[in-house]
Write a structure and sequence with these properties.
NusB_RsmB_TIM44, RNA-binding, NusB_fam
Amino acid sequence: MKSARRRSREFAMQGLYQWLISHGDANDINAYLCTTPGYDKADRVHLNTLLEGSIKQSDNLSKQLQSYLDRPYTELSPVEHAVLLVGAYELVYQPNIPYRVVINEAVELAKTFGGIDGFRYVNGVLDKFAANARPEEVGAKRNIDCRH
């Protein structure tokens, strides 16, 4: 059974995908998402935060992600780009969510919606991005892992 947070990330990613393709209005995209089955089971506050925040910060986040990509972000598949935007948004603007949870959730989104190996790409990019976005948290966790 999917958690309300997982569902919110799925809907946010789908909304971002639609936005990347159409460059439509976030409110119109959200209105469309409301009609999608399962929407009522999503954490709507988290969904709105992710969708609106990722759209507002998309240029900034895409530019920050660029140094971790093997190609221009404009050449990413819309699914990978949307998943990376959701993950990057959470890493930068939602420090209360552990970075490993953010990365795991993004990997699950990529497995569900992306290409065959897209999840590996997403994992690698966000792992490097997290080390820069949350150096203290990532460094502390890696130091603990090394001791065991």
